[in-house]
Amino acid sequence: MNARDQFTSPPPPIIDQNNQYGSPHLYTQVASLRGREQPSKNAKIGTVFTMGTIVRITFYPCDPEEWVNVGNYFVQQKYLGQKPSMKELYEEFDAIPKSDLKKRKQVGERLVEFSWKSGESKIPALERFLEIANQLKDEKQIYTAKLNLKLAKAGEDRVSFEKLHAMGVSESTYLVINGVKFSNYETLPLSKLIKVMGDPLKILKKEPDCCFSGDQRYQYSNAEFVVDQEKNIAEVDWISLQSDNNAFVINDFVINNKTTEEKFVDSVSKWVEYDGNYPEEYQFYLLEYALINISFKNRKPKRYSFSIFP
Fold first, then answer.
1. Residues 6 or more apart from 57 whose CB is under 8 A from it?
2. What is the pTM (predicted TM-score) of this model?
């Protein structure tokens, strides 16, 4: 090598395995990284990786501009590296002048996204981002930052599973479908379902699995059930909460199409599991073998779904 030779720095070492992942991998280094379906900036976006996402590596080029296959998608090498550090991200953010709002927003987004993965308190990161949102006078980001702060603070004082389970088996927790109360929010008598909902729009054959006993899916415009005709049971897959006369009631708190997301969070934030990287999705763990997911759209409830752990 002489002075005229060009030298490219070697890429950061691939992590063979650690306590988070058992195969060769690296971590994404930026917020909201677009995963392309082909190795090109013009290719269709197939997914978005949040800051600090573990990605599997099979081949790693030296050129930072080259594309890396990270499973089903492609990202450029320069956006991959070692596991991020919350301490280093805080130091980087706090060193940026307040006048450099663009850089503060960029690093603030990385800080917030990784905080939900870090196992550390999210509150300091969210407080910093709320400051940025206020600087930007961005009402949507101010709303989201405030909502996430409420959830993060509540998450550090979450109600115990024993208390949640007691709620889950009490008479104050139930489903309402077409105005009819069902005390069992997991399984309904098929004959009663037909009486309340009528005949389904479509019946699909379903492969048996460990999570449902039924082998047919009854599809309605605003709900779906897995049905075992021999046992006369209909297992709830999902129901729409956008429909009038549908609701999920937990500990006497009604979740229906009149509930706002802000009221929902104010009322149940200590009862739910939430990850800010998946906004508008809230989980209740009321039973040892299942979870209830409440999804929102445009700050109003969209869907109730019931999932049994495999």
1. 14, 24, 25, 26, 68, 70, 80
2. 0.89
Query: Residue 123 pLDDT > 60, yes or no?
Result: yes
Tokens of 158: 């979450």
Taking residues 284-299, report their average pLDDT: 96
Euclidean distance between CA atoms 124 and 144, whole angstroms:
15
Chain centre distance of CA 256: 21
Which residues have C-beta within 8 Å of that of residue 39, sequence separation ≥ 6?
67, 69, 74
Strand order in the sheet with 25-28: 54-56, 25-28, 80-81
The CA-based angle 140-144-150, given to 5 degrees, is 150
Q: Give the pLDDT band of residue 6 (cuts 50, 70, 90).
A: low
By C-alpha distance, which of 138, 176, 142, 151 is closest to 280? 151
Per-position DSSP letters for 106-155, written without gaps between them: HHHHHHHHHHHHHSS-SHHHHHHHHHHHHHHT-HHHHHHHHHHHHHHHHH
**Token pair 């909902």 in the structure block, residue:** 197
Q: Quick one: CA dihedral 125, 130, 135, 141, positive or negative? A: positive
Instruction: Provide the token pair at 76.
Output: 């450029």
* DSSP string computed for 258-284: T--HHHHHHHHTTT-B--TTSTTEEEE
Q: Are strands 300-308 and 233-240 parallel, antiparallel or unpaired?
A: antiparallel
Nearest to 149 by CA among 135, 164, 129, 134: 129
Query: How far is 176 from 301, CA to CA, in rounded Å?
Result: 14
Measured distance CA(301)–CA(294) in Å, rounded: 7
